[in-house]
Design brief:
This protein is an alpha/beta fold. The protein folds into three domains: about 1-70; about 75-180 and about 370-450, no CATH class; about 185-370, Glycosyl transferase family 10, C-terminal domain (Rossmann fold), CATH 3.40.50. About 40% of the residues lie in helices and about 10% in strands. It has a six-stranded mixed sheet with strand order 2-3-1-4-5-6, covered by helices on one side. The protein is elongated, with a radius of gyration of 35 Å.
Length: about 450
Amino acid sequence: MCHYQIKWKRVKHCTWTIDFYTLQMLAILLNKIMRVKLRVLLWFVCIFTVFFLVTLWTYSDVNSVSETKIDSKYPVIVWWNMDFHGVSSIKYCSNGVKCNIYGKNDKAMQLYYNVGAYIFYASTLDFKNLPLPREPKDIIWGLFHEESPRNVEELLHEKALSLFNFSATFSRFSDVPYPLQHIDSFEDIRSKKYFIETSKKNELLNEIAPIMYLQSDCETSTERDAYVKELMKLIKVDSYGSCLNNKQMPPKFKDDYLNNLNEDEFLAFIARYKFVIAIENGACNDYVTEKFWRAIKVGSVPIYFGSPTIKDWLPNKKSAILLEDYPTPKKMFEHIQVLLHNDRLYEEYLEHKTKQLITNQRLLDEHSFRPYQYDGVKIIDKFECFICERLHDKINGQIGVHIVNKSHYDCPKPLSALTLKVNPDNTWVYSWEYAKSSAESIYERVINGYY
Protein backbone atom coordinates (compact mmCIF):
# COMPACT_ATOMS: atom_id res chain seq x y z
CA MET A 1 0.00 0.00 0.00
CA CYS A 2 2.76 2.25 0.95
CA HIS A 3 4.69 1.16 -2.11
CA TYR A 4 1.78 2.01 -4.28
CA GLN A 5 1.41 5.34 -2.68
CA ILE A 6 5.05 6.06 -3.15
CA LYS A 7 4.89 4.95 -6.73
CA TRP A 8 1.83 7.00 -7.29
CA LYS A 9 3.46 10.03 -5.79
CA ARG A 10 6.51 9.56 -8.02
CA VAL A 11 4.41 9.14 -11.11
CA LYS A 12 2.30 12.07 -10.15
CA HIS A 13 5.41 14.13 -9.46
CA CYS A 14 6.91 13.00 -12.74
CA THR A 15 3.74 13.82 -14.59
CA TRP A 16 3.61 17.25 -12.97
CA THR A 17 7.25 17.77 -13.91
CA ILE A 18 6.59 16.80 -17.51
CA ASP A 19 3.55 19.04 -17.63
CA PHE A 20 5.48 21.96 -16.15
CA TYR A 21 8.37 21.40 -18.57
CA THR A 22 5.95 21.20 -21.48
CA LEU A 23 4.27 24.42 -20.46
CA GLN A 24 7.63 26.12 -20.02
CA MET A 25 8.73 25.03 -23.50
CA LEU A 26 5.44 26.12 -24.98
CA ALA A 27 5.82 29.53 -23.32
CA ILE A 28 9.35 29.93 -24.71
CA LEU A 29 8.20 28.81 -28.13
CA LEU A 30 5.22 31.13 -28.00
CA ASN A 31 7.47 33.98 -26.90
CA LYS A 32 9.79 33.31 -29.86
CA ILE A 33 6.84 33.11 -32.19
CA MET A 34 5.52 36.38 -30.79
CA ARG A 35 8.94 37.99 -31.25
CA VAL A 36 9.10 36.78 -34.81
CA LYS A 37 5.56 37.92 -35.43
CA LEU A 38 6.25 41.29 -33.82
CA ARG A 39 9.40 41.69 -35.92
CA VAL A 40 7.46 40.67 -39.01
CA LEU A 41 4.66 43.00 -38.01
CA LEU A 42 7.11 45.89 -37.56
CA TRP A 43 8.69 45.15 -40.92
CA PHE A 44 5.25 44.99 -42.44
CA VAL A 45 4.33 48.37 -40.91
CA CYS A 46 7.58 49.92 -42.20
CA ILE A 47 7.13 48.46 -45.67
CA PHE A 48 3.49 49.54 -45.74
CA THR A 49 4.42 53.08 -44.61
CA VAL A 50 7.11 53.39 -47.29
CA PHE A 51 4.74 51.94 -49.86
CA PHE A 52 2.02 54.38 -48.77
CA LEU A 53 4.33 57.39 -48.98
CA VAL A 54 5.70 56.33 -52.36
CA THR A 55 2.19 55.73 -53.61
CA LEU A 56 1.06 59.09 -52.26
CA TRP A 57 4.02 60.88 -53.89
CA THR A 58 3.48 58.99 -57.13
CA TYR A 59 -0.22 59.74 -57.03
CA SER A 60 0.54 63.39 -56.38
CA ASP A 61 3.05 63.42 -59.23
CA VAL A 62 0.60 61.65 -61.50
CA ASN A 63 -1.99 64.23 -60.58
CA SER A 64 0.49 66.95 -61.53
CA VAL A 65 1.14 65.24 -64.81
CA SER A 66 -2.56 64.71 -65.37
CA GLU A 67 -3.28 68.32 -64.52
CA THR A 68 -0.46 69.37 -66.82
CA LYS A 69 -1.93 67.35 -69.66
CA ILE A 70 -5.38 68.71 -68.98
CA ASP A 71 -4.08 72.29 -68.81
CA SER A 72 -1.57 72.04 -71.64
CA LYS A 73 -3.85 74.28 -73.70
CA TYR A 74 -2.81 77.20 -71.47
CA PRO A 75 0.45 79.05 -72.16
CA VAL A 76 3.30 78.56 -69.70
CA ILE A 77 4.98 81.33 -67.68
CA VAL A 78 8.06 80.58 -65.58
CA TRP A 79 9.56 82.73 -62.83
CA TRP A 80 13.19 82.18 -63.82
CA ASN A 81 14.98 83.14 -60.60
CA MET A 82 12.31 83.52 -57.93
CA ASP A 83 9.54 81.22 -56.72
CA PHE A 84 6.89 83.65 -55.53
CA HIS A 85 4.23 80.96 -55.60
CA GLY A 86 6.16 78.05 -54.14
CA VAL A 87 3.94 75.66 -56.10
CA SER A 88 2.65 75.53 -59.62
CA SER A 89 -0.71 77.12 -60.27
CA ILE A 90 -3.11 78.19 -62.94
CA LYS A 91 -3.40 81.95 -63.30
CA TYR A 92 -6.94 83.17 -63.86
CA CYS A 93 -6.99 86.65 -65.36
CA SER A 94 -9.54 88.98 -66.91
CA ASN A 95 -11.75 87.94 -69.82
CA GLY A 96 -11.21 84.28 -69.02
CA VAL A 97 -7.51 84.38 -69.90
CA LYS A 98 -5.51 81.63 -68.18
CA CYS A 99 -1.86 80.63 -67.97
CA ASN A 100 0.19 78.05 -66.11
CA ILE A 101 2.63 79.70 -63.67
CA TYR A 102 5.70 77.84 -62.43
CA GLY A 103 8.90 78.48 -60.54
CA LYS A 104 12.17 77.46 -62.16
CA ASN A 105 12.63 74.43 -59.90
CA ASP A 106 9.04 73.21 -60.10
CA LYS A 107 9.07 69.54 -61.18
CA ALA A 108 5.89 69.94 -63.18
CA MET A 109 7.55 72.70 -65.18
CA GLN A 110 10.17 70.22 -66.37
CA LEU A 111 7.48 68.53 -68.45
CA TYR A 112 7.30 71.63 -70.60
CA TYR A 113 9.59 72.49 -73.44
CA ASN A 114 7.27 75.17 -74.82
CA VAL A 115 7.62 77.89 -72.20
CA GLY A 116 5.91 81.01 -73.54
CA ALA A 117 7.32 83.59 -71.12
CA TYR A 118 9.94 84.03 -68.44
CA ILE A 119 9.67 86.57 -65.63
CA PHE A 120 12.89 87.73 -63.98
CA TYR A 121 13.16 89.19 -60.48
CA ALA A 122 15.85 91.84 -60.91
CA SER A 123 17.36 91.86 -57.41
CA THR A 124 18.49 88.22 -57.69
CA LEU A 125 19.18 88.22 -61.42
CA ASP A 126 22.35 86.47 -62.56
CA PHE A 127 23.21 87.54 -66.10
CA LYS A 128 25.45 84.48 -66.43
CA ASN A 129 22.49 82.20 -65.89
CA LEU A 130 19.75 82.99 -68.39
CA PRO A 131 17.45 80.75 -70.48
CA LEU A 132 19.40 81.02 -73.72
CA PRO A 133 19.15 81.15 -76.65
CA ARG A 134 17.19 84.38 -76.55
CA GLU A 135 14.22 84.12 -78.90
CA PRO A 136 12.32 87.42 -78.61
CA LYS A 137 9.87 86.52 -81.39
CA ASP A 138 8.87 83.30 -79.64
CA ILE A 139 9.42 83.80 -75.92
CA ILE A 140 8.49 86.84 -73.82
CA TRP A 141 10.89 88.09 -71.16
CA GLY A 142 9.37 90.16 -68.36
CA LEU A 143 11.38 92.21 -65.85
CA PHE A 144 10.11 92.79 -62.29
CA HIS A 145 12.21 95.43 -60.51
CA GLU A 146 10.89 97.30 -57.49
CA GLU A 147 14.17 97.87 -55.68
CA SER A 148 16.92 100.48 -55.42
CA PRO A 149 18.93 101.30 -58.56
CA ARG A 150 22.10 100.25 -56.78
CA ASN A 151 20.95 96.59 -56.61
CA VAL A 152 21.56 95.71 -60.27
CA GLU A 153 23.57 98.48 -61.88
CA GLU A 154 23.51 96.95 -65.35
CA LEU A 155 19.80 97.72 -65.45
CA LEU A 156 20.58 101.43 -65.21
CA HIS A 157 21.50 101.16 -68.89
CA GLU A 158 19.29 100.68 -71.90
CA LYS A 159 21.32 97.83 -73.40
CA ALA A 160 20.49 95.57 -70.47
CA LEU A 161 16.89 96.77 -70.28
CA SER A 162 16.37 96.04 -73.97
CA LEU A 163 16.81 92.32 -73.35
CA PHE A 164 13.30 92.36 -71.90
CA ASN A 165 9.95 92.76 -73.61
CA PHE A 166 7.85 94.08 -70.74
CA SER A 167 8.49 95.51 -67.28
CA ALA A 168 6.98 96.16 -63.88
CA THR A 169 8.91 98.94 -62.12
CA PHE A 170 8.38 102.15 -60.15
CA SER A 171 8.46 104.18 -63.38
CA ARG A 172 5.14 105.55 -64.64
CA PHE A 173 6.26 104.44 -68.13
CA SER A 174 6.58 100.80 -67.13
CA ASP A 175 3.99 98.34 -68.44
CA VAL A 176 2.80 97.70 -64.89
CA PRO A 177 3.92 100.79 -62.94
CA TYR A 178 3.84 101.28 -59.19
CA PRO A 179 5.40 104.66 -58.29
CA LEU A 180 3.35 104.73 -55.06
CA GLN A 181 4.53 101.35 -53.76
CA HIS A 182 6.05 102.89 -50.62
CA ILE A 183 2.79 104.37 -49.38
CA ASP A 184 1.26 102.01 -46.83
CA SER A 185 -2.19 103.49 -47.35
CA PHE A 186 -3.30 106.53 -49.33
CA GLU A 187 -5.31 107.63 -46.28
CA ASP A 188 -2.02 108.00 -44.37
CA ILE A 189 -1.33 111.21 -46.28
CA ARG A 190 -4.24 113.01 -44.60
CA SER A 191 -4.40 111.03 -41.37
CA LYS A 192 -3.59 112.86 -38.13
CA LYS A 193 -2.84 109.69 -36.21
CA TYR A 194 0.76 110.74 -35.50
CA PHE A 195 0.46 114.44 -36.26
CA ILE A 196 1.72 116.91 -33.65
CA GLU A 197 0.52 120.51 -33.72
CA THR A 198 3.11 123.19 -34.51
CA SER A 199 2.79 124.79 -31.08
CA LYS A 200 3.70 121.49 -29.41
CA LYS A 201 6.61 120.99 -31.83
CA ASN A 202 7.88 124.42 -30.88
CA GLU A 203 7.91 123.41 -27.22
CA LEU A 204 9.82 120.24 -28.09
CA LEU A 205 12.63 122.34 -29.56
CA ASN A 206 13.87 122.71 -25.97
CA GLU A 207 14.61 118.96 -25.99
CA ILE A 208 15.37 118.04 -29.58
CA ALA A 209 16.80 119.58 -32.75
CA PRO A 210 14.43 120.93 -35.41
CA ILE A 211 15.78 118.41 -37.94
CA MET A 212 16.05 114.62 -37.79
CA TYR A 213 18.43 112.46 -39.84
CA LEU A 214 18.16 108.68 -39.67
CA GLN A 215 20.41 106.58 -41.91
CA SER A 216 22.49 103.44 -41.62
CA ASP A 217 23.65 103.25 -45.25
CA CYS A 218 26.48 105.75 -45.30
CA GLU A 219 27.97 105.17 -48.77
CA THR A 220 25.42 106.29 -51.34
CA SER A 221 25.58 107.51 -54.91
CA THR A 222 23.84 110.74 -53.86
CA GLU A 223 26.52 111.51 -51.23
CA ARG A 224 23.84 112.38 -48.68
CA ASP A 225 26.21 112.24 -45.70
CA ALA A 226 28.41 114.90 -47.33
CA TYR A 227 25.38 117.18 -47.59
CA VAL A 228 24.15 116.56 -44.04
CA LYS A 229 27.64 117.05 -42.63
CA GLU A 230 27.74 120.56 -44.12
CA LEU A 231 24.21 121.36 -42.94
CA MET A 232 25.15 120.30 -39.41
CA LYS A 233 27.73 123.09 -39.32
CA LEU A 234 24.90 125.60 -39.64
CA ILE A 235 21.97 124.15 -37.69
CA LYS A 236 21.28 121.46 -35.12
CA VAL A 237 20.45 118.06 -36.59
CA ASP A 238 19.69 114.99 -34.47
CA SER A 239 21.40 112.18 -36.36
CA TYR A 240 20.41 108.64 -35.39
CA GLY A 241 21.60 105.43 -36.99
CA SER A 242 25.22 104.75 -37.87
CA CYS A 243 25.69 107.66 -40.30
CA LEU A 244 27.01 110.88 -38.70
CA ASN A 245 25.59 109.67 -35.41
CA ASN A 246 25.38 112.32 -32.70
CA LYS A 247 22.39 111.15 -30.69
CA GLN A 248 21.46 107.80 -29.19
CA MET A 249 18.16 106.09 -29.79
CA PRO A 250 15.87 105.72 -26.77
CA PRO A 251 16.53 102.28 -25.20
CA LYS A 252 13.18 100.90 -26.38
CA PHE A 253 14.22 101.41 -30.04
CA LYS A 254 17.96 100.89 -29.81
CA ASP A 255 18.22 97.13 -30.43
CA ASP A 256 16.07 96.63 -33.50
CA TYR A 257 14.79 99.96 -34.79
CA LEU A 258 15.51 99.15 -38.46
CA ASN A 259 12.86 96.44 -38.34
CA ASN A 260 10.39 98.68 -36.54
CA LEU A 261 10.43 101.84 -38.62
CA ASN A 262 6.70 101.56 -39.26
CA GLU A 263 5.67 100.71 -35.72
CA ASP A 264 3.33 103.19 -34.02
CA GLU A 265 5.77 104.12 -31.25
CA PHE A 266 8.59 104.82 -33.67
CA LEU A 267 6.41 106.86 -36.02
CA ALA A 268 5.26 108.94 -33.06
CA PHE A 269 8.92 109.44 -32.16
CA ILE A 270 9.68 110.81 -35.66
CA ALA A 271 6.56 113.01 -35.65
CA ARG A 272 8.04 115.24 -32.93
CA TYR A 273 10.50 116.73 -35.44
CA LYS A 274 9.58 119.73 -37.56
CA PHE A 275 11.80 118.53 -40.43
CA VAL A 276 13.14 115.16 -41.57
CA ILE A 277 15.99 114.77 -44.05
CA ALA A 278 14.87 112.45 -46.85
CA ILE A 279 17.69 111.96 -49.34
CA GLU A 280 17.38 108.87 -51.54
CA ASN A 281 20.27 106.46 -52.09
CA GLY A 282 19.74 106.82 -55.83
CA ALA A 283 18.21 109.40 -58.14
CA CYS A 284 15.81 107.88 -60.66
CA ASN A 285 12.65 109.27 -62.20
CA ASP A 286 9.65 108.23 -60.07
CA TYR A 287 11.84 106.48 -57.50
CA VAL A 288 10.30 107.90 -54.32
CA THR A 289 10.78 105.72 -51.25
CA GLU A 290 9.53 105.41 -47.70
CA LYS A 291 12.08 108.04 -46.63
CA PHE A 292 9.80 110.66 -48.19
CA TRP A 293 6.42 109.05 -47.52
CA ARG A 294 7.18 108.31 -43.86
CA ALA A 295 7.72 112.02 -43.19
CA ILE A 296 4.48 112.82 -45.03
CA LYS A 297 2.67 110.16 -43.00
CA VAL A 298 3.70 111.50 -39.58
CA GLY A 299 3.39 115.19 -40.44
CA SER A 300 7.03 116.26 -40.54
CA VAL A 301 8.31 118.32 -43.47
CA PRO A 302 10.70 116.34 -45.72
CA ILE A 303 13.95 117.99 -46.81
CA TYR A 304 14.15 116.03 -50.04
CA PHE A 305 16.60 115.03 -52.74
CA GLY A 306 16.34 112.07 -55.09
CA SER A 307 13.79 111.60 -57.82
CA PRO A 308 13.98 114.40 -60.43
CA THR A 309 10.21 113.96 -60.84
CA ILE A 310 9.34 114.41 -57.15
CA LYS A 311 7.10 117.42 -57.85
CA ASP A 312 4.74 115.11 -59.73
CA TRP A 313 4.10 113.18 -56.51
CA LEU A 314 3.83 115.87 -53.84
CA PRO A 315 0.36 115.96 -52.22
CA ASN A 316 0.42 119.75 -52.64
CA LYS A 317 2.77 122.21 -54.26
CA LYS A 318 4.50 122.81 -50.92
CA SER A 319 4.66 119.41 -49.26
CA ALA A 320 8.45 119.18 -49.14
CA ILE A 321 11.50 121.42 -49.18
CA LEU A 322 13.55 120.42 -52.22
CA LEU A 323 17.31 120.75 -52.43
CA GLU A 324 16.94 121.90 -56.03
CA ASP A 325 15.05 124.98 -54.77
CA TYR A 326 17.66 125.73 -52.09
CA PRO A 327 20.76 124.32 -53.78
CA THR A 328 23.37 124.80 -51.04
CA PRO A 329 23.37 123.92 -47.33
CA LYS A 330 23.62 127.64 -46.52
CA LYS A 331 20.52 128.51 -48.56
CA MET A 332 18.66 125.59 -47.01
CA PHE A 333 19.65 126.78 -43.53
CA GLU A 334 18.43 130.30 -44.26
CA HIS A 335 15.06 129.01 -45.47
CA ILE A 336 14.60 126.74 -42.47
CA GLN A 337 15.39 129.62 -40.15
CA VAL A 338 12.55 131.60 -41.73
CA LEU A 339 10.14 128.69 -41.19
CA LEU A 340 11.26 128.20 -37.59
CA HIS A 341 10.29 131.79 -36.85
CA ASN A 342 7.02 131.82 -38.79
CA ASP A 343 4.44 129.14 -38.00
CA ARG A 344 2.12 130.24 -40.79
CA LEU A 345 4.81 129.74 -43.43
CA TYR A 346 5.83 126.44 -41.85
CA GLU A 347 2.26 125.12 -41.95
CA GLU A 348 2.01 125.84 -45.67
CA TYR A 349 4.01 122.62 -46.01
CA LEU A 350 1.47 120.67 -43.96
CA GLU A 351 -1.86 121.39 -45.64
CA HIS A 352 -2.36 117.67 -46.30
CA LYS A 353 -2.67 117.42 -42.49
CA THR A 354 -3.98 120.78 -41.29
CA LYS A 355 -6.53 121.23 -44.10
CA GLN A 356 -6.82 117.61 -45.26
CA LEU A 357 -5.92 118.83 -48.76
CA ILE A 358 -4.49 116.91 -51.70
CA THR A 359 -4.47 119.21 -54.72
CA ASN A 360 -2.12 117.21 -56.96
CA GLN A 361 -4.42 115.72 -59.58
CA ARG A 362 -1.71 113.40 -60.93
CA LEU A 363 -1.32 111.85 -57.49
CA LEU A 364 -5.09 111.47 -57.09
CA ASP A 365 -5.41 109.90 -60.53
CA GLU A 366 -2.54 107.51 -59.90
CA HIS A 367 -4.20 106.37 -56.69
CA SER A 368 -7.55 105.98 -58.42
CA PHE A 369 -6.35 104.22 -61.58
CA ARG A 370 -3.85 101.83 -59.99
CA PRO A 371 -5.10 100.77 -56.55
CA TYR A 372 -2.94 97.62 -56.61
CA GLN A 373 0.23 99.61 -55.81
CA TYR A 374 -0.01 99.45 -52.02
CA ASP A 375 0.21 95.65 -51.86
CA GLY A 376 3.25 93.74 -53.11
CA VAL A 377 1.23 90.57 -53.74
CA LYS A 378 -1.26 92.48 -55.87
CA ILE A 379 1.58 94.06 -57.88
CA ILE A 380 2.98 90.61 -58.67
CA ASP A 381 -0.50 89.34 -59.52
CA LYS A 382 -1.04 92.30 -61.84
CA PHE A 383 2.23 91.71 -63.68
CA GLU A 384 1.65 87.98 -64.04
CA CYS A 385 -1.74 88.63 -65.60
CA PHE A 386 -0.29 91.33 -67.85
CA ILE A 387 2.31 88.85 -69.15
CA CYS A 388 -0.37 86.17 -69.50
CA GLU A 389 -2.56 88.49 -71.56
CA ARG A 390 0.37 89.53 -73.79
CA LEU A 391 1.24 85.86 -74.24
CA HIS A 392 -2.26 85.11 -75.49
CA ASP A 393 -2.07 88.17 -77.75
CA LYS A 394 1.21 86.89 -79.21
CA ILE A 395 -0.21 83.43 -79.81
CA ASN A 396 -3.17 85.01 -81.59
CA GLY A 397 -0.87 87.18 -83.70
CA GLN A 398 -2.17 90.42 -82.18
CA ILE A 399 1.18 91.90 -81.09
CA GLY A 400 4.72 92.08 -82.38
CA VAL A 401 7.96 92.22 -80.42
CA HIS A 402 7.98 94.86 -77.67
CA ILE A 403 11.22 96.09 -76.13
CA VAL A 404 11.78 97.75 -72.74
CA ASN A 405 13.51 101.12 -73.06
CA LYS A 406 15.26 103.50 -70.66
CA SER A 407 12.05 105.25 -69.62
CA HIS A 408 10.99 102.06 -67.78
CA TYR A 409 13.89 102.46 -65.32
CA ASP A 410 15.37 105.89 -65.83
CA CYS A 411 18.40 106.51 -63.61
CA PRO A 412 20.90 109.07 -64.91
CA LYS A 413 24.53 109.27 -63.84
CA PRO A 414 24.62 109.87 -60.04
CA LEU A 415 24.35 113.46 -58.82
CA SER A 416 25.74 114.67 -55.52
CA ALA A 417 23.21 116.12 -53.06
CA LEU A 418 25.91 118.56 -51.96
CA THR A 419 26.63 120.11 -55.38
CA LEU A 420 23.68 118.86 -57.47
CA LYS A 421 26.31 117.88 -60.03
CA VAL A 422 28.15 114.72 -61.00
CA ASN A 423 31.17 114.25 -58.75
CA PRO A 424 33.81 112.49 -60.88
CA ASP A 425 35.56 111.32 -57.70
CA ASN A 426 32.44 109.53 -56.47
CA THR A 427 33.07 105.78 -56.67
CA TRP A 428 29.43 105.28 -57.64
CA VAL A 429 30.04 107.30 -60.81
CA TYR A 430 32.86 104.92 -61.74
CA SER A 431 30.58 101.99 -60.90
CA TRP A 432 27.84 103.45 -63.12
CA GLU A 433 30.30 103.70 -66.03
CA TYR A 434 31.59 100.19 -65.46
CA ALA A 435 28.02 98.83 -65.37
CA LYS A 436 27.35 100.50 -68.71
CA SER A 437 30.23 98.61 -70.29
CA SER A 438 29.08 95.42 -68.58
CA ALA A 439 25.52 95.90 -69.87
CA GLU A 440 26.81 96.17 -73.44
CA SER A 441 28.82 92.95 -73.05
CA ILE A 442 25.83 91.13 -71.56
CA TYR A 443 23.63 92.29 -74.41
CA GLU A 444 26.05 90.99 -77.05
CA ARG A 445 26.43 87.66 -75.28
CA VAL A 446 22.70 87.10 -74.88
CA ILE A 447 21.68 88.25 -78.36
CA ASN A 448 24.38 86.11 -79.97
CA GLY A 449 23.52 83.13 -77.77
CA TYR A 450 26.91 82.69 -76.10
CA TYR A 451 26.59 80.18 -73.27
